[in-house]
């Protein structure tokens, strides 16, 4: 467990929830991972290596799931620090002294946020939009690509941004199916019959819903969709959208408050270091 979280992460997560995430959830994942890799070539690998080496092997899906969930959970908790332990000015501000804070492609993180999202409140709005749109468990990531562009990427279940084939996410108007490589767009593509060569274009209920009730955050989510940034992504922070992370402290309908309090405890100094790290 990160030393800063031994007494919880006030006001975001209680001590009970932090210990639940680390001593039960995380410990259980690692125990099951050790059982899966025992006696296999993966037994000597690090968790990161196991994620990378099993992502494309369907016969090792449990190894991947346990390793990826453990890695994501560790990254999430390492991105937090109690609000009282933060510096007075936790969020890095744009600086004319470029050497004073980490930079990437000549920009500070604060400048990149301002350039791409307009402001920190707009970034928070875009993150909340992506998170509130998730109806299943997963993760919301702020990432950078090789060219210093920022993006907000949701992944589902045990998926990760570290391996392209296992992100299980797509542009904001696509919904991935259970089978890798197929999306709901396959069903929406007009079907051509061999006999008539005529296309049928029946409108699905989901298409009607999107047409009649557009998302008011649509422009924000599309501006940072996975398709707008490069294929090589480097995570800066992630938020767990598993119910066990927020249900105990916020209740069934407390997801929005959970997201609001997340920003009170985000470890901006760590995020900024990852932004400036060429090897992130």
UniProtKB/TrEMBL annotation:
Sequence ranges assigned to domain Manganese/iron superoxide dismutase C-terminal in this UniProt record: 107-165, 231-273
InterPro entries associated with the record: Mn/Fe_SOD_C, Mn/Fe_SOD_N_sf, SOD_C_sf
One family name in Pfam for this protein: Sod_Fe_C
Compositionally skewed regions (Low complexity) per UniProt: 183-206
Region (Disordered), start-end ranges: 173-208
Record GO terms (molecular function): metal ion binding; superoxide dismutase activity
Top-rank taxon: Eukaryota
Protein known as: Manganese/iron superoxide dismutase C-terminal domain-containing protein
Organism: Malassezia globosa (strain ATCC MYA-4612 / CBS 7966) (Dandruff-associated fungus)
Lineage: Eukaryota, Fungi, Dikarya, Basidiomycota, Ustilaginomycotina
């Amino acid at each position: 467990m990160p030393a800063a979280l031994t007494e919880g992460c006030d006001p975001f997560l209680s001590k009970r929830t932090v210990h639940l995430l680390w001593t039960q959830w995380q410990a259980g994942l690692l125990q099951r991972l050790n059982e899966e890799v025992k006696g296999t070539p993966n037994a000597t690998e690090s968790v990161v290596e196991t994620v990378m080496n099993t992502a494309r092997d369907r016969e090792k899906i449990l190894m991947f799931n346990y390793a990826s969930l453990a890695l994501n959970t560790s990254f999430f908790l390492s991105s937090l620090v109690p609000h009282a332990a933060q510096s007075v000015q936790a969020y890095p501000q744009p600086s004319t002294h470029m050497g004073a804070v980490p930079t990437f492609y000549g920009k500070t993180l604060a400048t990149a946020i301002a350039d791409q999202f307009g402001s920190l409140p707009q970034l928070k709005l875009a993150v909340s939009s992506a998170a509130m749109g998730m109806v299943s468990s997963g993760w919301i990531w702020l990432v950078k690509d090789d060219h210093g562009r920022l993006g907000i990427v949701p992944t589902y279940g045990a998926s990760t941004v570290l391996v392209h084939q296992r992100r299980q996410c797509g542009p904001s108007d696509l919904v991935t199916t259970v089978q890798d490589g197929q999306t709901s767009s396959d069903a929406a593509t007009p079907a051509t019959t061999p006999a008539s060569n005529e296309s049928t274009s029946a409108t699905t209920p989901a298409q009607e819903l999107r047409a009649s009730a557009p998302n008011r955050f649509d422009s924000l989510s599309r501006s940072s969709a996975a398709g707008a940034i490069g294929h090589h992504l480097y995570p800066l922070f992630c938020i767990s959208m598993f119910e066990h992370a927020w249900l105990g402290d916020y209740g069934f309908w407390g997801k929005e408050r959970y997201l609001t309090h997340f920003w009170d405890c985000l470890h901006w100094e760590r995020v900024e270091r990852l932004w400036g790290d060429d090897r992130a």
